[in-house]
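My current task is to audit a protein record that another person submitted. Alongside the sequence sits a line of tokens, each denoting a local backbone shape. Where you disagree with what is written, explain briefly why. This is what I was given:
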Amino acid sequence: MGHASAHPQRVRLFVGLWPGEAVRDEIVDHARAWVWPPQARLTHRERLHLTLCFLGELPAQRIPEVVERLPVRFEAFELRLGRAEVWSGGQAVLRPLAVPGALQMLHDRLGRALRWHAAPWLPRRSSFAPHVTLARDVRAALPPPHVLPIAWPVTGYTLIESDLRPPARYRVLYEYP
């Protein structure tokens, strides 16, 4: 046969915001103030992030193509995380108090830059609900009664590989700008 493998290596990719150490610490402190049910699966500190666009599984050889398309016009902004919610799917999340215009524009620009991928994840403006996932399997979790907003200065975005093989981890492949 002419090709080396019937199954070229595939990677799960997404574009997201990757918090710095100080913001990460504040999110972890916030999560400690929740009341968690015993089955709750808390997000590990090093996996905390905010997803902008999920690309799904791609052949690894397409990474350079993705990397090339990702630089878009970017303006730094501040996110203020302060809405603690439990979603119907059993996800505990921390959402921004408001979606800054610069965040919505970044999301839209990335969606346009990646439209070549023509996949079902393509963002529909109404479906963008920026959030940091704190835990899963938590339908009965109780958020703290008072949430002190966490100020997150956003100075760029990242291309991240989600490796699901145990121990599951995220790898930052590229940082923009």
About this structure: Residues 10-176 form a domain with the Cyclic Phosphodiesterase; Chain: A, fold (CATH 3.90.1140.10).
